[in-house]
Amino acid sequence: MHLISVVDLYESCADSLALHWVAGRLGSKRNILLKVDEKLAHVGYLNLIHPHQIQIISLYELAYLDALTRPVYQETLKQLFENDNLACVVVVDSNASDELKEYADRHNVPLFVSQLPGEHVINYLHTTFASMLAQRSTLHGVFMDVLGMGVLIMGKSGTGKSELALELVSRGHRLIADDAPEFCRIAPNVINGTCAVQGMNPFLEVRGLGILNVQALFGNSAIKTENHLRLVVMLEQMTPDRLKSIDRLQGDYRTRRVLGVDIPEISLPVAPGRNLAVLLECAVRNHSLKEQGYNAADDFCERQQLAMQANASRLEY
What we know:
Blueprint lengths: L1 E4 H12 L2 E4 L7 E4 L8 E3 L8 E4 L1 H8 L3 H12 L6 E5 L5 H9 L4 E4 L3 H16 L2 E3 L3 E5 L2 E7 L5 H10 L3 E4 L3 E7 L2 E6 L7 E4 L3 E4 H5 L7 E11 L3 H5 L8 E6 L2 E9 L6 H16 L4 H21 L1
Parallel strand pairs: 4-5, 5-6, 6-7, 10-16, 16-18
Antiparallel strand pairs: 1-3, 2-7, 8-12, 9-10, 9-11, 12-13, 13-16, 14-15, 17-18
């Protein structure tokens, strides 16, 4: 369960949803009570039978209201605004009428206007509420956006996670969070990651250099606020026996359980002379190919089998 005031929601979503507060400002302290088992009940199009806490009024709802007789119209607005569980009303794709503004001011219900489509507003708010209600976990590592993919670089202290992250940033990739990124499950199979402390994502600690502001050093394009976690890269100082145990064809792939979701994980051996940035970029590209259904090792084995069969046929003759 999570409680958020209308004014806090407005401040966090106003820019993204192009919201304008047109009436009912005295109701800024109204609260939205978010419950895990009622994710879809928090916001929706105008519904007086099973009223949402955030009622969306689009052109279709406005046309419905305009078609009502005057007494029914006034009774409908009264029923809408006198609902104690109502947090706010958002008019989309149009402007709010003077009568809607009057009812909003009379009942101290915040009334917003957005020119964005209703589906966009509803989907954005559903995603926002899902993030607020999601399970959360903090993992030790550096979370990066590499070629558009969310990659968590993990490893024991001293394996070079921050140095690798710095090299990746210098190659055009983006830093999301250093040391302790926070992850939340926003969908059955989707884990979203971000910096646990707002405003701290530009900072990266590199041994010998101290704290670096990546944004100040490389520009705004060097950082990103969030991304979906799709790959974990584990940096390991490997023993000779451990190196021998790695599959030469498939590599060292496994899965890591994060908030109930299996995330692919690959180990990269750390050794002098190994270009980890190039290897990690290649791992990301290869993982992307696997998600599309292509496996290089399987392709290699198939071509080798065909070559052996062709060679055997020639020997028979």
